[in-house]
Amino acid sequence: MAVMTLLHRCLYQLVQIRFIACRDGDEVGDENGESHVLLIAAEGSAEIRIGDNALLLNAGDIYCAAPRQVLSIRNVPEHTPVRAYRLDFERFGLMEQSSAHRLFRKPGFHLNSGKLHTDEPHRVLALAEELAVRSFEDPRRTESRFRQLLEALFEPGLPAEERPPSKVRQAVDYMREHYSDKITRDSMADMLRLNPEYFSVLFKKETGAGFSEFLNRLRIEKAKELLFLGRRGVHDTAIEVGYADGFYFSRKFKELTGETPTAFIGREKRIVALQHVGHLLALGVHPVGAAPTYLSKWGVADEWLADVAEIGELHPAEDIAALQPDLVIAHHLIGEEHLERLSSAARTVVVPYNKRGPFELFAYFAELLGKQEEAAAFLARYERKAEQARQRLAGVIREEETVAYYEIWQDRIWLMSEANGRGVANLYRGLRLRPPEALQREVLGPGVPLSIKLEELPRYAADRMLVGVYRSDKENANDSGWLGRLLQSREWQDIPAVSEGRVSFVDLTVFAPSDMLSLYYQLDVQADYLLGESNKSTQQKPIF
Q1: Which of 235, 276, 523, 528 has the most neighbouring CB atoms within 10 Å?
Q2: Closest C-alpha among 431, 445, 438, 429 to residue 462
Q3: For the whole model, what pTM was predicted?
Q4: Tell me, what's the pLDDT at 186?
Q5: Strand 53-57 to strand 46-50: parallel, antiparallel, or no bridges (unpaired)?
């Protein structure tokens, strides 16, 4: 994976990143090589030893091992191994620079081993997860995520807890928490021990809005959240967000939004979806803007999303604001500054795409959007289709047989949880098949993916296997033959499902999405594969 990025006069090259399970006595690091190793803990706890130093490792912690050093992991409970992302990278220092060339060298530019501190540990974990799990067709996207991770870890400056917030930031934070209280410019200035006139100038300089304008916009945005589902009356909403009466509130609401609260309650809401488009479509919700989606595989995107504005990869805040959304649905990899810009355009909710299973996410969106009846109707249609698929499989797959999905990458095999897509939720919820015990215990139960080596596969192998193969564009263009060698290897051939002809290779692009609409269409395709029939179900008509 030749991914490089320049940061603060140092060149960083990503060597590899993978998800690992660390047990007692394991060592992490490049003892004989030239790579730095980051250990980004997702769950579990243990003791880390670096030389003579003993440190505690908890979920969310990040440790670095310099080249030729190792982190020894101790006191790991047998039933709860540390699960972490291991990221190997090389670091080169800039020695010479001219208009014609740059000269980098590695010796002398090693980082120190030890614990790293960051303002955004959850974002670092999310970026590591995307780098490890997501299938990147665009190397620029990979480089962008790698750079974002490095910036979060190595940007210069004091840790966030040691940097005092500005006076205006303190004021804004207070207003966001106490917007329903009686707040005035003078009372806020007095609380911050500032001259009121100076506070006004400072506030507008940093926020771009006057104090009263900012407070009114904040209250109206909070009111829109309360009115979104139409479950509160105008007067009650006015009181709850800090206005003394409904008449003044209605006037301010129309002044800032261009419509009355009553009109806002009654109309269809404008939603921009940067993720989870399939869940919305399954609820009968058509967004006004959406990020690129896999749904075209099912032949529904052209018909359902023809009049939907496509939001680019970088999710420009100005493009989103131009759509005048009432709600923006974002994912957890968007930086805090960008989220603030999105929030200034509309209420923004952050919904991670791989932290909860698709059924749980579907229920969340149904409640968020007040579409519980539509959700129940869709789930009834899903269950009818699942029952048809179960009847097709009856008598072919015995009750005691196990079935599972596996994804082959060049140097490892991934075992996926329901939250990672690949139709896993269908196998065990819709088709009601049995997973291997080790897969249930270590992947499906905890809800996290697991990377294993080929020689570890027998422990997780099912009686029937659905297998996807990930290849980058570079690998497709220049096939080195690694897949053929793997499939001819003794380790692969000795798997019972392989030797007995119960392995089906699936189209990865069909099974990557994990939303409910995709799961609905994937049911027939999975049944086809498990029955050994030709794949005849990838092009289906919309169900609504």
Answers
A1: 276
A2: 438
A3: 0.64
A4: 92
A5: antiparallel
Q: How far from each other are the two terminal CA atoms of the chain, in whole angstroms?
A: 43
349 vs 224: CA distance, rounded Å: 13
Q: What's the fold here for domain 271-373?
A: Rossmann fold (3.40.50)
Do 395-512 and 271-373 have the same topology in CATH? yes
Kindly list the distances between the CA atom of residue 137 and the CA atoms of 142, 345, 353, in Å, as whole numbers in the listed order.
Answer: 9, 31, 18
**Residue 89 and residue 544: Cα distance in Å, rounded?**
49
3-class DSSP state of 49: strand
**pLDDT (0 to 100) of residue 302:** 64
Report the alpha-carbon distance of residue 304 to residue 16 in Å, rounded.
39
Partners of 309 in the beta sheet?
A: 289
Domain boundaries, the chain: 3-160, 167-266, 271-373, 395-512
Superfamily of domain 167-266: Homeodomain-like (1.10.10.60)
Which range scores top for mean pLDDT: 15-24, 59-68, 75-84?
59-68
Q: Which CATH architecture has domain 395-512?
A: 3-Layer(aba) Sandwich (3.40)
Residue type at 222 in one-letter notation: K
